[in-house]
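Why do we bother with holo predictions? Because pocket geometry can differ from the apo form. Keep that in mind while you read this record for calcium ion.
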Amino acid sequence: MDSAEYERKIAHRFAAFDQDGNGYIDRADFNAAAARLLAEFGTTARCDKGQALYTGAEAFWQGMAGIADVDGDQRVTREEFVGGAVKRLRDNPERFAEIARPFLRAAIAVADGEGAGSASVSAVERALVVLGADDATAGLAARGLDADGDGRIAEQDAVAALATYFTVIAPDA
Ligand code: CA
Ligand code: CA
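The structure, written out:
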């Protein structure tokens, strides 16, 4: 992989976190992601699922800041993201899984219409689109998450896939 391609992949991952597109990652981006998911699935912020999603988003942000906000200004710049998040998460993917897990668990609960403890492939596709993925990428990613082909995606699948997406920058990623 040449450096231009590496830069493109980094930019793509940074943009996925920078939900409001203002050039840095901060708490507002995580709150925006939570709000978009709740709106998509018709869930209020005040109910238990909504509260859990915001709590998970805050924990995700705190974990991200702890890893990547080197100067402590409560913003993760692109440089901090590359130097901190990508490199350090790649060295320790389990750490990433733990900071993301409460948010993913809550997001699956919001997207799960059946109380099954997992989300359908189509619900995950909708979630990815509302968080900024294009239709083709979202469909491919959602189907790829359903490793056993039962049409449902569980918390562990989502955690593993997110950790891989953000920590393994491979030529075919
Ligand atoms: Ca932002
Ligand atoms: Ca910073």
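The longest strand covers residues 118-120.
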